[in-house]
Amino acid sequence: MTCPNETKNRKNCNCSYPGCPRHGICCDCITYHRKSGQLPACYFTTEQEKTWDRSIAYFVKCNGR
Fold first, then answer.
1. Is 41 exposed, middle or buried (0-12, 13-18, 19+ CB in 10 A)?
2. Among 20, 24, 26, 65, who pairs with 6 as Cys (CB 3.0-4.6 Å)?
3. Is 14 exposed, middle or buried (0-12, 13-18, 19+ CB in 10 A)?
4. Average pLDDT over residues 12-33
């Protein structure tokens, strides 16, 4: 099944992982990262995303108050 929003989603996806098969398919991306205890790239700034650290701990460290 294809995602009807894939083209639009790709424009907003900041994932820098080369060859990611989930690029632009948000529901697959969220499912994949959730199973790994992670967050998808879109939860991070472009600079934070470049670390490829998708952990919840890193997200809290970057966004905690």
1. buried
2. 24
3. middle
4. 92
Q: What whole-number distance in Å separates Cα of residue 38 and Cα of residue 8?
A: 23
pLDDT score recorded for residue 64: 85
Say how far apart CA 36 and CA 59 lie, in whole Å.
Answer: 14
DSSP structure string for 32-65: HHHHTTB--GGGS-HHHHTTT--BHHHHHHHH--
Question: What is the Cα 22 distance to its own chain's centre?
Answer: 9
> Does the predicted TM-score (pTM) go above 0.85?
no
| Token pair 């991306």 in the structure block, residue | 29
For 1-31, give the DSSP string. Answer: ---TTHHHHHHH-----TT-TTTT-HHHHHH
